[in-house]
Amino acid sequence: MAVAEQHTPQDSVLPPAARTGTRVPTVIVDDVHIVYTVHGAGTGKGSATAALARLVMRKSSPNVRRVHAVRGVTFTAYRGEAIGIIGSNGSGKSTILRAIAGLLPPESGKIYTDGQPSLLGVNAALMNDLTGERNVILGGLAMGMSQEEVRQRYQGIVEFSGINEKGDFISLPMRTYSSGMAARLRFSIAAAKNHDVLMIDEALATGDRAFQKRSENRIKELRKEAGTVFLVSHNNNSIRDTCDRVVWLEKGELLMDGPTDEVIKAYEKHTGK
Ligand SMILES: Nc1ncnc2c1ncn2[C@@H]1O[C@H](COP(=O)(O)OP(=O)(O)OP(=O)(O)O)[C@@H](O)[C@H]1O
Questions:
Q1: How many angstroms does the Cα of residue 173 sit away from the middle of ligand 1?
Q2: Is residue 219 included in any domain, yes or no?
Q3: Whose CA is nearest to atom 12 of ligand 1?
Q4: Is residue 3 scored above 60 in pLDDT?
Q5: pTM metric for this prediction
Q6: Do the domain assignments include residue 83?
Q7: Residue 58: inside a domain, yes or no?
Q8: Is 273 strand, coil or helix?
Q9: How far apart are CA 199 and CA 208, in angstroms?
Q10: For ligand 1, which residues put their CB under 6 angstroms from it?
Q11: Among candidate residues 234, 270, 250, the one with its CA nearest the CA of residue 84
Q12: What ipTM was reported for this prediction?
């Protein structure tokens, strides 16, 4: 599998056309294809001798299947934009975000990014056995904050998350949190920092209404602070409230890219809503 070219601005590799004009590109996705290789996809276990024979003969396992999740997607994101990514289940939304974050190498095509994109997924890694408090501190340090910055922002992060609204949960291990509470804490930690490119995968769908409102406001602030925000969501209202542009993926292909109202209208017509 080819390794993606993940460039930073220091490399000055943005195509000349992208560097001119007043709009500053932050992410360029250029004809990207992403393929997952799934091992053990077939039925039956196969014998150890057969596996050894394949190794010796350098043949690949018959149980390896390839899933072509993203097919030739191209778009450019600019500073100050909030871009919604929509599409039905399995259309490649999370996959493209993971590739922009540098977590998945494209099979072909290129991704250029300005700064380090941060992927704020519902699965972002926090330590289950550590308390919420320790996770806030470690998460802040992991994002590059100094100890002093973490100390200054700690209270704000806990308040934003609303974890302590029903008791002192922040001093309990994360494994005692509901999945919604854990997702809210992840969002709050990541949103405490200003990101060049912030990618949010369904995070808004997790919290209650009050938390969703806080998140939406924070995303608006992050946009003002000149970053670019990507939001993957099945909630068209969150996308409408937060994004000014929408990219619609279907079966791994880019079906439409344009102003939020236009794209959501076409999408709703397509899904029969
Ligand atoms: N780790 C993986 N290994 C193999 N195939 C995968 C993997 N992750 C996703 N896929 C496949 O890639 C395709 C795109 O998946 P992806 O998760 O990007 O879709 P999505 O649009 O985010 O879906 P959803 O709306 O359900 O979250 C699907 O066919 C899925 O089955």
A1: 30
A2: yes
A3: 69
A4: no
A5: 0.76
A6: yes
A7: yes
A8: coil
A9: 20
A10: 36, 38, 67, 69, 87, 89-95
A11: 234
A12: 0.97
